[in-house]
Give the backbone structure.
Amino acid sequence: MRQFSLVDAVLSVIQIFDELTNAALNREPYANIQDLFHVSQQTATDFDPNAMAALDGIYGLPFTSETACQVILPVPWEATVSYRTGTASAPDAILQASKQVDLYDPFVKDAWKAGLAMHEDYEEIDQLNAKTRTMAERYLSVLEKNGTDDALLAEINENCKSVNEWVRTNARKYLDKGKLVCVLGGDHSAPLGLIEELAKTQTFGILHIDAHCDLRDAYEGFVYSHASIMFNVMKLPNISKLVQVGIRDYCDHEVSFVKNSAGRVVMHTERQLKARAYGGESWHSICQSMIKELPEKVYVSFDIDGLDPKLCPNTGTPVPGGLEFEQSLYLIHEIVRSGRQLIGFDLCEVAPGADEWDASVGARLVYNIANMVAASNGFAQFTELFQTGK
Ligand SMILES: [Mn+2]
């Protein structure tokens, strides 16, 4: 039997000291980054990134949520959507479409090795979504007849809360292992639990790409509505800044919210951005001015309807105008190039249509952003191409 030696005692003291120092510095939970990185590298040994996707993993990658450095948390949830449904099937559709995505990323060296996987078990959210969607439809039809049903509304809000708790529990499980986590919606209420968990240990800003500013207080009575995500997020004191980009459908209350935020929320409407571009300012220069508003750590919350609807024709609440695919990625690239750290992201409101188009755009966005997040945290290296931006 192994004896407890002086060496063990010294090691324990060092470990305790290390933990205390980490706690004192409020450091990221990335202490075991080397171990994690090693596991994913080992897993990748026999994988051929040039072959057809034959494995079950997202993008046909050889990782599971156990061996991955970054885990995609699927949240097939759309119980409180206000217009068109469909986004609850996004995780399944994006998983399917991901198999067609080529793995070479010109900006991230051997990006496929960075260790990306999708959390495997999300059946219970599927079931709760189906049940709660029916309840919400019943409630909305009562509302339309100018009626009310407080008990039903309370039950719906309770179910939304338990989805939020599910996200928090799973996000925490991975964050505690030093992994990166991103949320794949579902409607835009999906990432609240992840943002809450990240905000427990650090202060950060949010880049919010969306056609809507989602600053409504309990839309249609639903406390955790997709239209309230940023209203709920701004209750967290550790979110020092919210920079909204591409906004083109919003109400008076939301404008007042931004005005009363004393600069904590900055809204860049589509009209302002286009006016600057039409006046001759380059997208590069517009990006730099928006990035200056963000702190050192940045979370990206991406509603697909922030893009031009040609890239997301089936999303729940499409609005004319919007960013191009590469424009949005360029903005995120520039955040990293500025020396800021990406700490996580979500992609929401992708709604698969009759063909794979919406899911294919979503799968490509997730892959590109995830690679940048991985490299931003030392799980991969940026290429020279990335550094020069050409
Ligand atoms: Mn939106």
Notes: The radius of gyration is 21 Å. The domain at 6-388 is CATH 3.40.800.10 (Arginase; Chain A).
